Amino acid sequence: MENIWGILFQGISWKMISGIIGITLIWTLTSFFVPLNINVEVPSILLGLFFFFKNKLYQEFHQFSKKDFTVLSVISLTIIFAGSFYPYILDHFGYYIPTLKWLTEYGLIKGISNVDLTLGQMSLWHIFQAGFSNFSDPFLRINTVLLMIYTFYIIERKNWIHLCFLPVLLLFSQSPSPDLPVIVFSLIILNELIAGNRNTIILFAFSVFVFAIKPTMIWLPVLTFLVSLFIFKSNFKQLLLGGAILFLFFTKNIWTFGYPVFPVAIGDLGLSWKPNPEILNTSSQFAVMKTYDMQYTYEEIQKFSTADYIRNWFSLEGIKSKINILFVLSLIIFSVFAWIKKRKLITLICISLLIKSILILAFSAQYRFFIDVFFVIFFVMFHEYFDKKKSIIVFSALSLFFMSILSFPEIIQKYIPSFRVGSFMNGLQKEQILKPSTYEYQQFDTFKVGNLQFNVSHNYPYSFDTPIPAVTPFYIVEDVKAGIFPQLLDKNDIKKGFIWKKMTPEEKREAQKVINNIKNTDK
Predict the structure, then answer these.
(1) How far is Cα 306 from Cα 310, in angstroms, rounded to an integer?
(2) Tens of pLDDT, residues 368-389
């Protein structure tokens, strides 16, 4: 891949990152036509091994001194240990695994968002994970591998403040969460910009790639665009590679979701497989309620005055309000910092973060959408302060703290009960030393409505190991409320895709049987 788009920086870590970008883009194109199964995985791995030995890439590891190798080994063992815990992020079960199952069995499916709206995202990171999930990474720990690559980068570039972030990122190592790669990649891009790297072509393309993984990272391509315009004085030809990646991202979303950017219903092309407007409206209302941590109904929120919107967001029960307050304070402090420094790059970073923050606050101001802002602000403000010694001390202390939380989640469950994610942590198991911990449920019921035969997890809200096509109980209820149901475009070929269709009286009776079954099993 370096031969195609060049080198951003020297070292084995860029070769790994360059490979990640290249493989992901190639597999995204591939998944339009074939599933990302073992037939895709094996040739990719063989090709990688061929170039690893042909180009003698193993010699890159000789650059590390004994001290560096010791640091690398200790950090890697910490990362592997953290990655061996049970996954606990709820999206792992409701979104990540179902997405991977569809990708490995069918590839990108037209109108898949009609089956389950969240599947319309099909993040590029899940395409990357899916391609390695058949035999080389069946436990779905690609994020653990990425953290080790990040460690290589830190040691190669001798920018030690990054070690302060690693312990927090360990909390994302058990699942293929897109939050981790976008944070890691954004910090790498920021580091290169601050270090004076002027490779506009790769910086902008890399930034667009991060945006394509998770669109809430909109600030990053905005930043690199502004930097290329006002600092590097680049011409638009240098933005073409990033533009091509952006085009692929839009095409993928239009194919799976019906609109260019998930989950926003903007840019209507009148496609037959776009989601039902009522389902999109329900999703939008749900996003508004999530802004207030589901502590108010949508009707109550609609009655808020402008002052109520702000006051209630800052005064939510539990830890969420503290995070919201810290977020706004951080933006204010960073804005003042940028004004005092009067450096063009820091000003552009501040502008980009403010643009992103305004969009998030307008759409759905959930803390998980702006968590990256904390990392960026801390990095920009303190990257000159943290040397190797200070960073290793912080890494050691924070790693011990977060490893304690993962091993003994009763701590966080007792002292921060409002942090709901903590209640799903399962603690240290002796078996995970030899094999990463995973869950199995495999209980489901099979139904048919219209021409779609589908599976529903039995007495469980998510379909993480339910055979596909699987529909989550929540979306079945919402579809029935709207008087619609997903249907196959071709009853004999799932690969042809899905549309929604108004139900006939007979189909309504079939769907109601499914609803009744869900209610009875819930009891």
Answers:
(1) 7
(2) 788 899 999 999 999 989 999 9
